[in-house]
Amino acid sequence: MSGPLEGRVVAVAGATGGLGPSVVQALAAAGASLGLADRDQGELDAVVAGCGLAPDRVDARVVDLLDEEQARGWAADLGARFGRVDGVAHLVGGWRGGTPLEEAPLDDWALLHDLLIRTVQHTSRAFSAALRAGGHGRFVLVSSKQAQAPTHDNAAYAAAKAAAEAWTLALADGFTGTGATANVIVVNAIATPAMLEGKAPDAYPTFTRAQDIADALVYLCSDAAAAMNGHRLQLHGSGLRG
Ligand SMILES: NC(=O)c1ccc[n+]([C@@H]2O[C@H](COP(=O)([O-])OP(=O)(O)OC[C@H]3O[C@@H](n4cnc5c(N)ncnc54)[C@H](OP(=O)(O)O)[C@@H]3O)[C@@H](O)[C@H]2O)c1
């Protein structure tokens, strides 16, 4: 039986983080071939081993997405190897916070700016031509409720995620009429399979399961979501702070 992403090629930026393995497995199960990037080759190889893809359907390599030339080289190499790139899942993350904004070190901003915005800029600019060319390109950002409901002790993180969302929605605007789309999945926090192991189903009531995010990402990459461009898909319970 063929999956919704049969024949598609999807690049995953930040593939070995908390969310990465669930996304990689879901995309592979949906039929996509994959290009994976992160900072550690050993961790990338472990994620590849866990997704069950044949070697000719996966490319996993160290790419520093803070270096725009490396991001562009990654996009070019994937295009050359697979002949196309149909989707990009941006999963690069990181967090600093928990301190009132009057006391929080402003250096946090520099770090979060790089991790949460700069990598989005480099990745989207590197892949946007390929995403437009295929007629059904997909870009997906995973974001945080903090972007639209910031708390006093998360100001830098919230501002960085808000900027990343704005960048992604601007990308979506540029995709208008091309068949390509860019969308945002919004969560409060992510419950990874390791966190859920041996826990009661309601152990993390305000978290979203990594598997549910991965399923939403597969949907956004599929033809079923062709009409969804520039949306923020809320994958968390109701309530501003929950
Ligand atoms: N975790 C949550 O509760 C949560 C909540 C809301 C939104 N989100 C968002 O959801 C997405 C996935 O979250 P996550 O927890 O899986 O993220 P993560 O583990 O913090 O980061 C994902 C991966 O990106 C890698 N990375 C960092 N800088 C990089 C660079 N310059 N070049 C290439 N790779 C780099 C990280 O490597 P290192 O391990 O070496 O840093 C890590 O393996 C992120 O965009 C995050 O902001 C997460």
Q: What can you see in these coordinates?
A:
The protein is an alpha/beta fold and 242 residues long. It has a single domain (9-234), classed as 3-Layer(aba) Sandwich (Rossmann fold). The chain is 41% helix and 17% strand. The chain has helices at 20-29, 41-51, 68-82, 107-133, 155-175, 193-196, 210-221; strands at 9-13, 33-38, 58-62, 87-90, 138-144, 181-187, 190-191, 208-209, 232-234. The strands form 2 sheets. It has a 7-stranded parallel beta sheet, sandwiched between helices. α1 (20-29) runs parallel beside α2 (41-51), α1 packs across α7 and α4 packs parallel to α5 (155-175). The longest helix is centred in the middle third of the chain and has 27 residues, at 107-133. The chain is globular and about 50 Å long. It starts with 8 loop residues before the first strand and ends in an 8-residue tail after the last strand. The model has no long low-confidence stretch (mean pLDDT 96). The structure holds NADP nicotinamide-adenine-dinucleotide phosphate. Residues 14, 16-20, 37-39, 63-66, 91-94, 115, 119, 142-144, 187, 189-190 line the site of NADP nicotinamide-adenine-dinucleotide phosphate.
